[in-house]
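Suppose you are handed only these lines of text.
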Amino acid sequence: MEQTFIMIKPDGVQRGLVGEIISRFEKKGFSLKGLKLLTVERSFAEKHYEDLSAKPFFPGLVEYIISGPVVAMVWEGKNVVATGRTIIGATNPSASAPGTIRGDFAIDVGRNVIHGSDSVASATKEIALWFPEGIVSWQSSLHSWIYE
Ligand SMILES: Nc1ncnc2c1ncn2[C@@H]1O[C@H](COP(=O)(O)OP(=O)(O)OP(=O)(O)O)[C@@H](O)[C@H]1O
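From them, the structure of the protein bound to adenosine-5'-triphosphate can be written out as follows.
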């Protein structure tokens, strides 16, 4: 089944939003397949955001991501990439709808709490980058209560 990479950024960890964010994905019915708290090196953050390296905000973005621990996760479920982005909300919290994570918990685009893969191809690449050791293989016993 489809998987996505979700990262709670340093502001989300510092602000005590880890439980709230995990809870939103769990309650939706998605399955947690990988989870770790880590502080990343500058070169790793640059690699994760390499597609944005030409953007004027890139140096500030890298400083932000390496400024403290992040929570890296893999979530699995039907359409989890697109639905995960919907749960997260628009990139700029000023445009994120209430009820989304960024809409409820963020104000500034440079402190928008969470990252989610933007396509299945990006998810595959990001999961390989962040979880080279692999993820956990298991199936929730609630599966038949969530999927028809
Ligand atoms: N104009 C900006 N000023 C400051 N930071 C920005 C700006 N635009 C984007 N960013 C930061 O760079 C991140 C990556 O930007 P991108 O355009 O890929 O958005 P996104 O895919 O919604 O975010 P993410 O990749 O973090 O899920 C944003 O989440 C935000 O933290």
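What can we learn from it? The two ends are 14 Å apart (CA to CA). Strands lie at 3-8, 31-38, 70-76, 114-116.
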